[in-house]
Amino acid sequence: VLIDKYILGLEVEVDAVSDGAEVLVPGVMEHIERAGVHSGDSMAVFPPHRLREEAVAELVETTTKLALETGTVGLINVQYVVHRGRVLVIEVNPRSSRTVPFLSKVTGVAMVDAAVRSMLGQSLRQQGLRPGLVPPPPLVAVKAPVFSSRKLNSVDTVLGPEMTSTGEVIGVDSTLA
What we know:
Elements: E1 10-18, E2 23-31, E3 44-46, H1 53-69, E4 74-83, E5 86-93, H2 100-107, H3 111-119, E6 132-133, E7 140-146, E8 167-173
């Protein structure tokens, strides 16, 4: 039996690379849809626009602790809800996620390469990478899902906890406007 509680708030996603001793966080992504929509179906913006600096710092600190406490070496994805300033963990995935290519592209951090080198025993510092949060580049990027509902008849188009998108696109500009 699984019992879930819906928590109203901002859904946030953090992808990171751990070498087992230190953690690199290329960026924090803020979901645009309400919490409860599958992360693969949610639009997301990088860097986050509605989060306070204190919340971002707590997200990075919590992601770092989770990566180290779980013994993760390589990629880790953590999904959160930020509700009234409180950071709540929804899900921890010690693996690659669909947002790794997005973050790698917009931050310039080759996350997969760093993860593989970490798994082969090379520390982040030996790779020339500085642990912690990477300063965001001077851009705004939006990840948007692509749906095939026009081609597939009788597909439910209501967004919810089950993923229905079949792809993603990226938009990059100097501002969110």
